[in-house]
Amino acid sequence: MKLEVESIMENIMKKLNIRLTSQRKIILSTFIENMDKHLTVNELYEMIKDKNKLIGMATIYRTIEILLKNDIIVKHDFGDSVPKYELGIERKKNHHHLICKRCGKVIEVSELLKDDFQKKILATEGFQCTGYTLKIFGYCDRCRIALLSEKNYIQDIINKII
Asked: What single Pfam family name could you report for this chain, choosing any that match (predicted)?
């Protein structure tokens, strides 16, 4: 994993036209090490604070802005008013998110839309699509089952009253 992080970091350094300070390296490597997660700023800070006590929230926010501007990370709004960030490079580009309305779980899926989706938009609408996000809200397996149980419980109470 360490070799993979270094390799990805090298690719990013080539892409960026900024100085990669030690603080930025730590923040970036944390994103790379957690490339399968969607991190809030607070979660990122909790992961980083033990690595370098000098990195504060202001540094994290400034670095996030730089990484966003350079398309290194992606910002998501999953409907809970807390922005979440994920590594935007070295990943499948247009993956989609299934978001549980009850527990907030985010499930990444890909290939929900046909590969020619962007070409069809260009052909039918004359619109050049450079990327997209798809968020589908609903209930994960655990919450769906729990909601059914709650509904049945309430129905049982109503039936006993009537």
From this structure: FUR
